[in-house]
Amino acid sequence: MSKAISASSKERTAARILVVDDEPSMCEFLSIMLGKEGYAVSHQTSANQALTELRQGSRDPEKRFDLVVTDLMMPEMSGLELLKSSQRIDPGIDFIVMTAFGSIDTAVEALKNGAHDYITKPFKVEEIKIAVRKVIEQKQIKRQYQVLKENLSTGFDSFIGSSAAVVEIKRLATKAAATDVTVLISGESGTGKEVLARAIHSESNRSSEPFLSLNCAALPETLLESELFGHTKGSFTGAIKDKVGLFAAAVDGTFFLDEISETSPAIQAKLLRVLEEKEITPLGATKPQCVDVRLIAATNANLQERVDHGAFRADLFYRLNVFSIKIPPLRHRGEDIELLAVHFVRRHCAKLDMPDKALSEQAMGLLKAYSWPGNVRQLENLLERTVMLSHGVTIGPDDLPDEIRNATDIKNRTASLSVGPDLESMEKAYIFYTLAQTGWNKNQAAKILGIDLSTLYRKIERYGLPKKGEA
Questions:
Q1: What would be the CATH architecture of the domain defined by 153-328?
Q2: Residue 233: pLDDT above 90?
Q3: 16-148: CATH number
Q4: Across the strands, what pairs with 185?
Q5: CA-to-CA distance for 374 and 191, rounded, in angstroms?
């Protein structure tokens, strides 16, 4: 008899595990224990019945198993025979075999035949939890990479646009892709820095290897260091096992570091060593390890400005800035909006399995008139929602959210009133006044303005304010 147990309410997304053991008590124990870990678990006391369930799973993606945990010594069919038979049904299923200490030779044979790991009985609960987690995590990473690879448009076609700015960006990116040079991509949030980085990778000689990415601003320093460089077991509280860092995981491929401006001096020093020596040292380790990784970094801040004010290492900046590409905001390349909008509507119609829709001339006009502070990312998110909620095959002005229609009305009314300077001009003047009053002490100015330092840097760059002594 088969019984499914899961602690997760989203069984369609939970990893599916099949436990096979001729001892019912072992099946029940492992099913309950792994179910509490969030897996969708079935169990069988018969290896033949297990094969039947595996065949059913191979025909239905919703019932496909990710992992089989099986005893080796069973009466009607050994775990090794089950492994060999299952590989003919579905080669993508991983196996963990359980065996008594005296049967380790058989377990080693199972490893040679494709088993992922083996556990000796009697085992500790934590031991099998870790073994299962390791298999599932590796499988998920492989799936995510495959999905990204399959969804990636060919080469630079993924970076949509025909404006002069985009033509120049693609020209530079093509040159960068032909080498292993470190690339620094700058631009506001949402302009497509990661899209461009992926395109460079796909056109490089590393395209068959992994592309991994990390947003440096998304993690605290201690966790960021572990994610980047890995750690050894016991190197800090909670480090219960060795962890491979992303630099090591990206070996021979490309590693994309977003918002690199937000890293601490300690992280910057380690990144410099990676670029200069091609080495990393995991937390708690005593020996460095070599890594051959192509680095592409991105920032929405002015790194040269950060260097000038001691907020970013000059030597790291020079190493990163070997080949720089700047992506302008969408409001500065309005001629690309139509191409992007058509592309996103088609993409999300296909994604939602809906008939193709088209934007009316009036709707397109509203999109072109909007300033898009969130850039391309905001445009895509808005159109995904619009495609999902709109009726019929034509998207008209009424299908667009109020923020788009109202912003255009306000812009038109403001232009006709001519009542004085706009808010941006007033903000620019006030920031300039505050900086001048503080002797261009940006820390002090930021406090007076009530904004953080990184925001102040962005506004100085955005408004083209002069540096100290240039006024």
A1: 3-Layer(aba) Sandwich (3.40)
A2: no
A3: 3.40.50.2300
A4: 298, 325
A5: 8
